[in-house]
Task: inverse folding
């Protein structure tokens, strides 16, 4: 499943907000990627759709050689400040010139759905080293476990955000589809899927910032976006605990 790439181009205009609003990935998820890949110290990693470095940072901190790839120079500028020891390239995965047999591990967090489905797994296989690993991961909010998230979801539905982030589960459907595609492919011999449940605390303003950091919200007209924010501001301002589920798909 591929989303409208025009929405993805909106992130550069809000790079600082995006970096502040988006959550980090669980330590266990990062550890499971490293364990599954059996990547060695100083191993080479490509982070597709690296954004402001949410996944790049923990991998750089573990002393791997990471190259971040993103379509937005503004997003990469933020990532460089956090990850000065990483390399970065501006561009799409589809168009990027990447040498064959280069990377031990390719990761993509909350970004693989922006990549055109045509030939993407073949390109991954070409630029991975023999026995290299692909790790795709996403997060979504479990609205069935939270009255607050359920209320948010109903508001987002009014603005054509049916099943969209952050309160929708479209990325879960995406992860399930990619898992099945990889299982049916002859490019990889081992494919696994893992989930992680984590609660995050928000203030109402923090949560509104999160909503406005989504590409589809940024593509709304200014009038609609302000109306959406006003609707969200009517929700309870008490301490908010949001139940997240992270989904990790691994293949090598």
Result:
């Amino acid at each position: 499943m591929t989303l409208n790439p025009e929405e993805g181009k909106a992130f550069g205009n809000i790079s600082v907000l995006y970096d502040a609003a988006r959550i980090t990935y669980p330590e266990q998820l990062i550890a499971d990627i490293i364990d599954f890949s059996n990547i060695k110290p100083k191993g080479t990693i490509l982070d597709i759709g690296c954004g402001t470095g949410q996944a790049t940072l923990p991998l750089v901190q573990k002393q791997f050689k990471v190259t971040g790839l993103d379509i937005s120079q503004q997003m990469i500028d933020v990532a460089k400040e956090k990850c000065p020891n990483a390399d970065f390239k501006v561009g799409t995965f589809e168009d990027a010139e990447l040498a064959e047999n280069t990377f031990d591990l390719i990761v993509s967090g909350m970004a693989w759905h922006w990549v055109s489905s045509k030939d993407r797994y073949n390109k991954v296989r070409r630029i991975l080293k023999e026995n290299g690993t692909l790790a795709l991961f996403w997060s979504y909010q479990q609205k069935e476990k939270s009255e607050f998230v359920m209320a948010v979801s109903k508001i987002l539905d009014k603005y054509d955000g049916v099943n969209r982030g952050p309160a929708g589960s479209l990325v879960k459907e995406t992860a399930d589809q990619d898992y099945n595609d990889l299982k049916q492919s002859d490019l990889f011999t081992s494919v696994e899927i893992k989930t992680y449940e984590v609660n995050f605390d928000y203030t109402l303003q923090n949560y509104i910032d999160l909503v406005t950091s989504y590409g589809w919200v940024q593509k709304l007209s200014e009038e609609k976006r302000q109306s959406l924010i006003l609707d969200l501001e009517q929700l309870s301002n008490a301490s908010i605990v949001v139940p997240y589920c992270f989904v990790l798909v691994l293949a090598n």
Observations:
- The two ends are 21 Å apart (CA to CA).
- The chain has a mean pLDDT of 93.
- The chain has one domain: 5-141+168-199+243-251.
